[in-house]
């Protein structure tokens, strides 16, 4: 496979000012006529990309160009062009046969496109790269009965009926864009719409399209879009620049959604919701993803990426923006204390995701900087690193500049680059211009290393206290092991990062100490230490006794902190830390310590016992006054197996999962009365609302129910069955079902599972939940999953369905997947290969399940290695999967 390198970037030697596309849509055989206005700006022939296309004709300035063009694999090369030329290409493609869901495809009888990253080349021949920006006009023609709605980017300028029952629509997008933002949708769709006035007074039309019959489920999506439009105006003074903004839900979609200019295409899972069929988590994901795609209109579309190495320019920044949007929406309308807690809850959720998905990636064979240096298949680089770590890198810039400074920096970025395709470095330069103004003599040169170096830095903290001088010295020392290609001979040595490290100090009673530095600089209770070298020291004055440090408050940098707390200190922080994030963190650290110690004991054959102090620490959180339910639920949730595994020298996933379950069960039994009280105190009678307070109550109540079930506590099964039967929203129904399936008796569990399917079999998004529950259930084996694959509702071709069963089993069922007989791994190999024949992008995501095989105990790592090798040697393997398994085996 060919490796593409960032350093080899060259500008495209032609401008393409306008693109006119005419589609004669037919599911079996679609014809595309493309007219390009081309102007030479550099050297060489015009080289266009195309994949799976049948070339019909090539003309230049109205003349047949036969003999002066060549097709070589996936490129079309045109020679002999003058300085200016009109190139016209006619080609054909087969949307119905497109199971990869890249380019033009048909889902549930509707035409959709997906062009990012390199899907436009499956629609027509074109320089398929983000730095070629053009104005598009599009004509769509199709049978009017089967495809009554014909949608594309921009404004609808003409519609007409044609002969033979066909009709056409003409669309013009006033904004130049790269081809990855092109979109069309054609089919029979229903829609919901609203009009709003932007803050400069323009009226805009907002529309959400979906399958006929689903119109009752699009209200939350439309309201979320309205909230997103308002938020971007308020927070960053960014206004919707179009007259019409459309969202369309697709049943078959490779990712979450796509930000095509004015015509966002969404996985239906992030559009459709009502209280009966969608959970609190679904509602919150809908708002977040709608926000995310809408925010791309400025961060991604108005200013786009020069090349795909810069992907985090738009993705990291837009994830940061959607995180801020969600935090603001959660805090909206609450008093100051509740608002602060709601923001902390959001921060905790984001950090949990980062630690579970990105930290392992950053330590494994696919480790890459947020701006990768090379790739074989760009589809493999839509990663937690580019997205989630990318967002952390933006957040650190906001921390260093302050929110007001960051807003000025973003305005400067748009002032410099609106309408351009730029690099991550251009973004940092705009931020740096503000940073340097506000901090004379300083710059972001060390900070830029976050873009070029991979791996999670570790920061070791040392505290020294001198009773005589009443001084406390804090030393921070950072290190970051080389990862991925950084380990290869000749790779440059790793340099220190610029780490904003927020810290507080508590006295022995847990009271915050005012932080006065030796240079006279005084802050109330949190100091932001900027570590830019391997190690550095800060001294605080007027401190009587050795304090307890509260470290990396609000997770001010994506690093791992090393500090040897005593159990007593962690318990103190859990009770008293004024920083709610650090308070949560203390509980997680204590739980991690307890579960890891018990796992070691189990491996040594000793019986499980949960220490009294830990139970009391958990009781204190469960019963402490003044904590809201959402926060309490997070603070009482044990760290996930994925996070715990990162702390083990060699991972024994079954032992770990068993000990985590036993810990949960022991907490259920020891604190049964308190959990029962939590169930009673957090009922949400009345009409369902997904607001964060109600969702928080449901989260705590359902955690309590699951914990009681895990502890096999008297009355828990009846409680769960009662909740399942009487629930008036999907959150409560599914939580009860999940507790029963995971911890209940087999007959009760089978009965409710059958009942659930019976009720919801006509709703694909709920059927996905039904498959997921079974895929992840304790007790599920490969045989169970293979049985479910023969269910009439199962199809590997639909990514949501494949994710709900196959992915969930391989990624989130430690007991079933990691069986010592290797059956889980053989199943993984068979599914990677089956998916690869249909949809390489999805197959490559499944392939990553064994990324970190070397981290497992030898009884598991060896069979993992064998199946990885088997997949790698499979003839005809896609570039996508080849890259993943080859890197895993390197
Ligand atoms: N920017 C979008 C990326 C995307 C995508 C990439 C590869 C294959 C299919 C895809 N669908 C969407 C999503 C986003 O981050 O907003
Ligand atoms: Zn995005």
Automatic annotation (TrEMBL):
Q: From what organism does this protein derive?
A: Pigmentiphaga kullae
Keywords of this entry: Aminopeptidase, Hydrolase, Metal-binding, Metalloprotease, Protease, Zinc
Q: This protein is called what?
A: Aminopeptidase N
What InterPro entries does the annotation carry? Aminopeptidase_N-like_N (IPR045357), Aminopeptidase_N-like_N_sf (IPR042097), PepN_Ig-like_sf (IPR038438), Peptidase_M1 (IPR001930), Peptidase_M1_dom (IPR014782), Peptidase_M1_pepN (IPR012779), Peptidase_M1_pepN_C (IPR024601), Peptidase_M1_pepN_C_sf (IPR037144)
Which Pfam families is this protein grouped with?
Answer: DUF3458, DUF3458_C, Peptidase_M1, Peptidase_M1_N
Q: Which residues form the Peptidase M1 membrane alanine aminopeptidase domain?
A: 220-436
Recorded catalytic activity of this chain's protein: Release of an N-terminal amino acid, Xaa-|-Yaa- from a peptide, amide or arylamide. Xaa is preferably Ala, but may be most amino acids including Pro (slow action). When a terminal hydrophobic residue is followed by a prolyl residue, the two may be released as an intact Xaa-Pro dipeptide
Segments forming domain Peptidase M1 alanyl aminopeptidase Ig-like fold: 455-564
Q: One GO BP annotation here?
A: proteolysis
Q: Does Metal-binding count among this protein's keywords?
A: yes
Cited PANTHER family: PUROMYCIN-SENSITIVE AMINOPEPTIDASE
Per the database record, which ranges form the Peptidase M1 alanyl aminopeptidase C-terminal domain?
A: 567-890
